[in-house]
Specification:
9 helices, 34% helix, 13% strand, single chain, globular, 9-stranded mixed sheet, FdhE-like fold, alpha+beta, 319 residues
Length: 319
């Protein structure tokens, strides 16, 4: 994909920092519906419009499925106390034993997507995913969490990612907000141990100027140092870039120490911005920052490439 333009570095301004609570847990009753609405708003005129509308359908399916999930296993008080005492994530993504509500959620998402408009490749992937048995869905989820997905899994990645998001977001939303505590290193999600998909700089009363890292799995947001790499935690060589002549809502935080970048959303520009949705809608920023020599610190599961020669999102390739 060729693109005219360049990324423009910006002076660092930490603004007026508030003293917010450490963690903001997701609200399962509104989270995915809000994401769908944001994707619908971002889609018109975007080069990836059909793809963004497809991911909006996935978010709507997650919202529908969230109200019909069976009761799941939640961490008890003893488990939470043990994790806090030893500095572990409360529902660690690689060690937490998923219960039957995970597969139930995956099947509910697939059912809700049955009549949704989507690219042909996604229609085929949905049929394959829906035909999987429970063990196969669990195995696919394990591969994605371990970042060991096979080439033949790629078309189904958005679907199993949606199921994993739903499962962990529901559990995170039911936690006591005082339960999560900072991990070491602090850039890991205190709920599930994931690295951040993006960060947000808040504008709401009581949180103005505060930065929160955003988990792409359980959707938890946790307070983090304003000028610090979200990947290697360095405070050296941090810079912020936006596309010349474009919006400053989403900027790339680059780190010269590890040569990675993470997107930062400035909510004063759009309070309704969503880390997943606005990340997907700003692919030109990824291309320009990548051309300038930085790599994404973490891939967005909805933007997984087919192979090294196909950086476009798989579900958009045939749209």
């Amino acid at each position: 994909m060729s693109l005219k333009g360049r990324v423009v570095p910006e002076p660092v301004d930490i603004g007026q920092l508030a003293a917010p609570p450490f963690v903001r847990l997701p609200d399962i009753t509104t989270h995915f519906a809000a994401r769908a609405a944001r994707l619908d708003a971002l889609a018109p005129g975007n080069p990836l419009e059909p793809f963004l509308r497809f991911v909006a359908e996935i978010a709507r399916a997650q919202h529908t499925a969230s109200s019909a999930l069976p009761s799941g296993t939640l961490p008890g008080d003893d488990h939470v106390a043990f994790c806090k005492a030893h500095g572990f994530a409360l529902i660690e993504r690689l060690t937490w034993a998923r219960d039957a509500s995970f597969v139930a959620g995956a099947r509910a998402i697939a059912a809700a997507l049955k009549d949704a408009a989507m690219p042909e490749v996604a229609t085929h992937a949905l049929a394959v995913f829906a035909a999987r048995d429970d063990q196969s869905i669990d195995a696919l989820a394990d591969r994605l969490l371990r970042e060991e997905q096979e080439p033949w899994d790629m078309a189904e990645v958005p679907l199993v990612a949606a199921a994993l998001e739903l499962h962990w977001t529901r559990m995170a939303s039911l936690l006591d907000p005082t339960a999560p505590t900072p991990l070491d290193p602090r850039n890991l999600c205190p709920v599930c141990g994931s690295t951040a998909i993006a960060s947000v700089v808040e504008a709401a009363a009581g949180r103005q100027g505060s930065r929160f890292l955003c988990c792409g799995l359980c959707q938890t947001r946790w307070n983090y140092t304003r000028i610090q790499c979200a990947h290697c935690v360095s405070t050296k060589g941090i810079a912020y870039h936006h596309v010349e002549g474009g919006s400053k809502l989403v900027r790339a935080e680059t780190c010269d120490e590890c040569r990675t970048y993470t997107k930062a959303l400035y909510l004063e520009e759009a309070p309704e911005a969503d880390p997943i949705a606005d990340d997907l809608a700003t692919l030109p920023l990824d291309i320009l920052v990548g051309d300038a020599g930085w790599q994404r610190a973490r891939l967005n599961w909805y933007l997984m490439p087919q192979d090294e020669d196909a950086p476009e999102p798989l579900s958009a390739a045939s749209s």
